[in-house]
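Supplementary Methods S3. Complex input for the zinc ion-bound model.
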Amino acid sequence: MGELLRERIALIDAVDDVEVSGSVRRRLEVIGNVNLVVSTRQRAVVVAELEKIIAELQEIDDATLKGRARGEMDVFVHLTKPAEFGSTLFRTTGSASFVEAFGAVLKAATEEQVFEKREIAFVEPERREDGADLKLKRRPRLVEPSQLRGTFHVHTTFSDGRNSVPEMLTAAAQRDWEYLGISDHSKTAYYAGGLTEEGLKAQQAEIALHEKSVAPMRVFRGTEADILQDGSIDYGAKVLSTFDFVVASVHSHFTMPKDEMTDRIVRAMDDPHVTFLGHLTGRLLLSREGYSVDYDRIFDKAAERGVMIEINGNPRRLDVDWRYLRRAVDRGVVFSIHPDAHSIGEYNAVITGTWVARKGGLSPKHIFNTRGVDEVEEVLKARRKRKTARKQG
Ligand SMILES: [Zn+2]
Ligand SMILES: [Zn+2]
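Predicted complex, serialized as structure tokens:
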């Protein structure tokens, strides 16, 4: 919503510059209002134009207007002169505690100058929830959406997706991805069209039929397998060993007590077929609390077993919560950014997923799918070999 407003305001002739600020710019997962900074030398002209774009617009003070968007969300417009655009952007981006930790904000035309004038290294907006990064000697180099070279956890019409295998493949190839991991639901998730062994055969035949048309993109065959109530993985070893990768996810019995739920997930990660742990807490923002888990035990197990944890970028999930990411990477856990796409449009969830990673302070080296196809294939193969070795031993 902030971005749409920004685009419309940018079209006003008398507007010098416009940027989204506040919690939207900090990529906070749940926002209470939208803030925009608008610089102009013709205040009155701009206010008259803004009234055509933003409903219920009223002046709060000399520098601030307040209105409503879509009848539900407060919009604040911060008017400023071009020479103070940067300092206004900085102050209204917040957070309040970051700005306080930063100290004096000198007038500046760009935000970079706000930092330069105080000889402080730039802190990305996502990292401004508190002043912690100001104390770091070196800022983390945050992962960018363009650095993702492929992804996993993609559904098709074989389970509950809305686009077919060829549609999902073609749309992925158009994003210049080097690889794509298809993973429809497993058979216990019958309510989500989970595939029986027969269904799997048909799905894999369909992938084989179409994958050549998207070459050189590689298509990995996987499943989003249910973590059953006792922590075992749906399908069992024989079927699981046929996949290139397995996303293991909890889809049932959400209300188990914290210890039992943690035991269940930890046990699932002991299964050598599991490549990724899917949506760690199952939360749905603003509608369903995640199941309660002991993060430290899960991170320890993931590091021990080399199971990668998914950052589910679906905007309704954004699961794992960014606040826990550093704790995990400090233990050696590797993350992978997945869209959990049920349509070609939902591939965009890798972008929101990357925002989560950035907010958590993660760099490309912490994210599995910033690696190229050869390295990814090698890792997946090595994990498959390990399974065989365990079986023989
Ligand atoms: Zn799922
Ligand atoms: Zn899914």
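The two ends are 56 Å apart (CA to CA). The mean pLDDT is 96.
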